Amino acid sequence: MYKTILCAIENSDEAESVLRKACELSQLCNAKLLITHIIPYKLLPNDYQKELKENALPSIESKAIALGIPKKCNYKVW
């Protein structure tokens, strides 16, 4: 069915639920799961953008690890 699933999340309580569903779907389809966190740069001051980007990856990693998604997955912050 699906070969690759892209899950875009933000640092919120709802993100864990969304990631859990994406993980379940990827396992069901035997698909690669890509997790990303997208920051709207045009709307934020530069210092705040940098702070968000630095905090996003650890947040994504902790949510993924809590769901048993292996560290070998590529976690990317754009």
UniProtKB/TrEMBL annotation:
It holds the Pfam family Usp. SUPFAM superfamilies: Adenine nucleotide alpha hydrolases-like. It comes from the Bacteria. Residues 1-60 form the UspA domain. InterPro entries: Rossmann-like_a/b/a_fold (IPR014729), UspA (IPR006016). This is Universal stress protein.
